[in-house]
């Protein structure tokens, strides 16, 4: 699991969000069979590669909805990491432009390889 990956992105519906940007936090639970695995990175998920993919998607792309960002991230990780059979991905937007006091806004998506 990769938890609390933080990046600056420009996702959102409002002009200020796309101009100023904000901090986004990503959690990715990656499921794959590794019981009895040899101590060899080529037989496991490379978390550095997953980190780089998440960073690229959050910082180089722009989406109106965090749900779309979550979908693109989950599909990208499944495409790039053939060992991953299931992913639970959360996109947190802790500074969403909402009235009132709140701790966090996030979306969660679960995908399984077909």
UniProtKB/TrEMBL annotation:
<protein>
    <recommendedName>
        <fullName>7,8-dihydroneopterin aldolase</fullName>
        <ecNumber>4.1.2.25</ecNumber>
    </recommendedName>
</protein>
<dbReference type="Pfam" id="PF02152">
    <property type="entry name" value="FolB"/>
</dbReference>
<dbReference type="InterPro" id="IPR006156">
    <property type="entry name" value="Dihydroneopterin_aldolase"/>
</dbReference>
<keyword id="KW-0289">Folate biosynthesis</keyword>
<dbReference type="GO" id="GO:0004150">
    <property type="term" value="F:dihydroneopterin aldolase activity"/>
</dbReference>
<comment type="similarity">
    <text>Belongs to the DHNA family.</text>
</comment>
<comment type="pathway">
    <text>Cofactor biosynthesis; tetrahydrofolate biosynthesis; 2-amino-4-hydroxy-6-hydroxymethyl-7,8-dihydropteridine diphosphate from 7,8-dihydroneopterin triphosphate: step 3/4.</text>
</comment>
<comment type="function">
    <text>Catalyzes the conversion of 7,8-dihydroneopterin to 6-hydroxymethyl-7,8-dihydropterin.</text>
</comment>
<feature type="domain" description="Dihydroneopterin aldolase/epimerase">
    <location>
        <begin position="2"/>
        <end position="111"/>
    </location>
</feature>
<keyword id="KW-0456">Lyase</keyword>
<dbReference type="InterPro" id="IPR006157">
    <property type="entry name" value="FolB_dom"/>
</dbReference>
<dbReference type="InterPro" id="IPR043133">
    <property type="entry name" value="GTP-CH-I_C/QueF"/>
</dbReference>
């Amino acid at each position: 699991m990769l938890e609390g990956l933080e990046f600056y992105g420009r996702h959102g519906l409002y002009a200020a969000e796309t101009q100023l940007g904000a901090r986004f936090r990503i959690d990715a639970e990656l499921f794959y069979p590794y019981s009895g695995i040899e101590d060899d990175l080529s037989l496991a998920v490379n978390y550095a590669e997953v980190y780089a993919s998440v960073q690229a998607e959050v910082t180089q792309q722009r989406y109106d909805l965090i749900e779309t960002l979550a979908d693109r991230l989950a599909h990208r990780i499944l495409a790039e990491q053939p060992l991953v059979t299931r992913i639970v991905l959360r996109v947190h937007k802790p500074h969403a432009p909402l009235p009132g006091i709140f701790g966090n806004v996030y979306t969660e998506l679960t995908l399984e390889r077909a």
